[in-house]
Every structure is written in C-alpha cells, then in structure tokens.
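Batch job 17 of 40 flagged for manual review because the log was empty.
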Amino acid sequence: MKKFILGFLALCPVLFSMGQDVLLPKPSYKKNHTLGVHFTLHDFQTAAEIKQNGLSEVLEAGQWYKTGRMNPGLAVSYSKGLTENIDFMGRLGGSLLKYPIPNKPTAINDKLLLEADANINVKLLSDRYWVSPFISAGFGASVWNGYFGAYIPTGLGLQVNFFQETFLFVQAQYRVPVTSGTTARHLFYSFGIAGNIGKKKEPVVLAPPPPPPPPADTDNDGIIDSLDACPTVPGLAKYKGCPIPDTDKDGINDEEDKCPTVPGLAKFQGCPDRDGDGIQDSEDKCPDVAGLARYQGCPIPDTDNDGVNDEEDKCPTIPGVAENFGCPKIDFNASAVQFVTGSCNLTTGAKTELNKLVKILNETYPDIKIAIEGHTDATGKPDKNQTLSECRANAVKTYLVSKKVAGERLSTSGFGQDKPIADNTTKEGKAKNRRVEFKVSQ
C-alpha cells in the first residue's frame, strides 16, 4: 500500500505544474477539459456488513474506516463541465485484489480488477469558489479474472479549486451491483488531483477609436438629417423621422387606427359603419343595411317571407298572415264547435266542423300545432265552469286524435269564465262566451 501512495504523490507535482501558467480567474466558471490521477481504495467487507447488520451497527463497531480492510489502486479520470454546476467525469482504474464474487469461493491470489465508470457530479458551488461539495451518480462496469459485471456508483465528494486550473478531489461512493451474480457491493474511496489540458487565450482588447463628431439633427428628434425624411419636423424612427401618419385622413393616426386605409369613426378605432346601425363594417354581415347586433348587423329575418319577421312569427317557416301572428289562416268555423248543454259531449254539427279541421291539419298543414282553449259563460259556479272548460278542450283533442291527428301537435287548456268576449248578462253574450278557441303555432 505504501508503494501506491508514494507513486500517487510522485505524480502530484506534475499535475500542479500544469495549473500554474494562468492564475487569474476566467469569466466563465464551466470546467475545461481536465485529466486527473487518483489513489483509490475498495472496501468489500464493510459494505457486506452494512447489508447484513445495518448501517448503525457498522458505525458503532467503528471498523468502516480501517485501512486494513481496504484494497488500494490507481485510476485516471477525464472531466468536463456541462454547466457551471454540473460536471461529467469518466474514470478508469485498476487494483490488485481478491474479488469476492457472490456465491463463489474467494480467490487465493490477487488478480487485477479493472473498472470504468461515467459519473455526473452536481456541485453545490461553481468553480468560482475554492471549495465545492458535490454529489455524484453514474454507471460503471468491471472485469476481474474473466468475470464481467456492472454497478451503479453513488456518492459524495469535495472539490478544492486552485485558480480553475488544478483541482483536488476527495470522494466516497457506495457501489450497488447491477449484475448481482458477478458483482459485489462495496465502498469506494478516491483521492486525486486533476489539471486542465487545454487553455483559452484571453481576447485582445483594443482601445476604441475616438468618436466622430455628432451629425446634424435639425429637428432634434434623435434622427440625423441624412436619415430623416422629415428633417425639419420632429418624428419617429419607424417613420423615418416623420410624424405618425393618418393615411385615410379620418383624424385617427395609423398607430391607433384599426382600419388605416378606410375613413372611419373614433368609437370604432378608425373603422367605418356605412349603414349607421352601430355595428362596424368588419363585424356587420349586412354593412349596407341597418340591422341589429343579435343578427350580426342584419335586419330581423323573415324566413318564410310572409311579411312577419321571425321574432313575431309564431310559424316562422310556414307563410301566414299578420293577423294570425304569421301563421296560416285556417278555413274553419270554430264557433260551430258546440256541446250538449252542461256537458263535454260534442254535437253532431261540432263533429262535422272538426272534420274540416282534421283534413286541414293532416293534409294542408301537417307541421302546425294547435292550442285548444275552452271557455264558458258566467252561469253557475266558477270552479264548475273551470272544470267544464277543461273537459270540453280535452273532448275536442280526443276527437281530433281519433281522426289520426298526432296528439303531440295538440295542447289543451281551460279558462272557465275568466276570459269573456261578450256581455254575460245577455243571452247573446253568453252564447259567444261558451266557445272553444283554436290558436295556431309551429
């Protein structure tokens, strides 16, 4: 072991001499290409005891730091900074030892163990500082007496920086086998020194020439006259020294004008509204006809072209008449729909008239709907009149359904004596109030 230590110390002056040429710190603190040599120690016994007995018992026993358990070796390394705080380190090392191959008898003679691993060192501090702790992890492979194996090295380390040219490394790793049949877990210690193998030349900084005399700027807008398209009027550089233009002459400069080539209004940021409906042309689907915002600037539509706009048309896709709210006028005498006195029974004449309605609903207008409303005069009690009006409306619906009119096209309601259309104090008025009304919709 003394021979390994003496050999390691003999190489130290060589590496130190590589780092003495330039002592001034560099502006970048990312590590340059470096080569290093390391004295290494392998401890298989302590790692096995940690696995078997636990870390606390091993620490209490105080055997983990005994050099008598360790096998010395030498290694060389190459390092390069990936960032100022992350370095790559590749290492190749060798050691003569008896390797404890799992489930195999321990060898009698020492044989050469070769190891190669690649690590990422994450430093707490950059190379700007003299001392920087780091953590490392990577992947390694080994060969001993024909046994090939792989392991994962993880550990802690300390880097001492001598002017970013020479580095002293102290590191401890715990190596976990990947190939359990040919690799044993063990502790690994490394003490090494590394130096830069390449140097960057400091750039030559020339003294700047004396500044030329300032060019003329007549309007003092910061743009010299030779580059100023409007040298006597202050302006902006993006307009070659001229003021902000107003291309469409609408009083809104182009920087604030969303329609800079078309005269417009300030409230629309320079965009026009030709039909004056309060909706700018770019958003108006009918820019030449005044309309409403909810129809994107167009007038209220009249889908069926019957002269009643869709908002007021109860049958918007079926042409109708205004007095029927846009629905077609039904050629049918509703007043002829009568009932047997005091009952919900339809008279023969009522059924004859309803047959006309059936033909209209099934053949002429198969898409319209009918609301059937029953009404009575004021004779009798209001609650009985209400019930009677509902019963009569339902009787009409029942008859229409029996004639193949779809029930979902029909709705009923009764209003009793609440909606008279004539004087309930006269015989004629009462007759008019005893009625069934038919209201068309789509």
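Reviewer: the log was empty due to a logging misconfiguration, but the result itself is present. The chain has a mean pLDDT of 84. Unflagging and moving on to job 18.
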